[in-house]
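[Discussion] Sanity-checking designs against the backbone

I'm trying to build intuition for which residues belong where. Below is a structure token string of 269 positions. I'd appreciate it if someone posts a full sequence so I can compare it with mine line by line.
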């Protein structure tokens, strides 16, 4: 009996460990070690979907210890070509409020020491990453957000920090002064690894808190992990609702250029 496949993948973030019902769980082996959890394959609106919680089922992997290469490879291994990457994020701007979403369009990497490429030697591939997120999947998310009861900003830059600590006041002020909208700990290298394999990837940031430094603006309090998880608890159902609206609307054939990354080298061969 052949194992099930999926063409759409979803990574679960903090607080988002289950997504599908009536699933088949697959233990996928990769050249980069085990992924964070078995890949769960099920159906959403007639589409076959693979779900993988990036931190593990019990949140056992902190952001700097997630095996991103194995996770992205595992989704590709079961047939996935399009990936949604919902993630928890802090707001850097007072007009981006907790409980809202941001459909990300740019990324700034401030991590260090994470294995972040499949091109480790032999033949080197140089991959364009000027626009980190798939425009077609971003459009699907924006349209889906307009049909469900959520507020979703149609663009935003995420600065990805190493974690697991939150930013200092000086760091947060620096990020805010640069005009970036949100801060997160997992979008890099996940988004880039998807690009190296020619997969479409869309980052969807769920705003859980205001980052430190906005205290005193409209009564904003400093970020704490208790605040983050309380917002996550209240918002997981809305994240699921938004994705359930988006997934059936993903075109059967990609109309973007994300897969052209493969032409720059042997990645994914």
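Best answer:
Here's mine. Compare freely.
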């Amino acid at each position: 009996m052949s194992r099930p496949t999926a063409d759409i993948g979803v990574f679960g973030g903090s607080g988002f460990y289950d997504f599908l019902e009536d699933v088949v769980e697959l233990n996928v082996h990769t050249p980069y070690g085990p992924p964070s959890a078995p890949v769960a394959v099920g159906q959403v609106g007639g589409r076959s979907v693979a779900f993988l919680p990036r931190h593990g089922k019990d949140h056992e992997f902190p952001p700097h210890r997630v095996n991103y290469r194995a996770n992205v490879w595992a989704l590709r291994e079961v047939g996935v070509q399009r990936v949604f990457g919902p993630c928890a994020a802090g707001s850097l701007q007072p007009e981006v409020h907790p409980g809202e979403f941001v459909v990300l369009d740019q990324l700034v990497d401030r991590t260090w020491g994470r294995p972040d490429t499949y091109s480790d030697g032999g033949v080197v591939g140089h991959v364009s990453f000027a626009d980190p997120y798939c425009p077609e999947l971003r459009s699907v998310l924006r349209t889906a957000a307009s049909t469900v009861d959520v507020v979703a900003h149609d663009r935003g830059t995420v600065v990805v920090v190493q974690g697991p600590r939150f930013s200092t006041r000086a760091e947060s002020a620096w990020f805010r002064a640069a005009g970036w909208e949100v801060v997160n700990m997992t979008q890099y290298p996940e988004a880039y690894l998807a690009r190296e394999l020619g997969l479409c990837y869309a980052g969807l940031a769920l705003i859980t808190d205001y980052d430190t430094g906005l205290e005193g603006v409209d009564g904003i309090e400093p970020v704490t992990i208790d605040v983050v998880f309380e917002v996550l608890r209240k918002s997981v159902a809305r994240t699921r609702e938004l994705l359930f609206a988006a997934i059936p609307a993903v075109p059967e054939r990609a109309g973007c250029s994300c897969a052209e990354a493969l032409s720059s080298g042997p990645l994914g061969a």
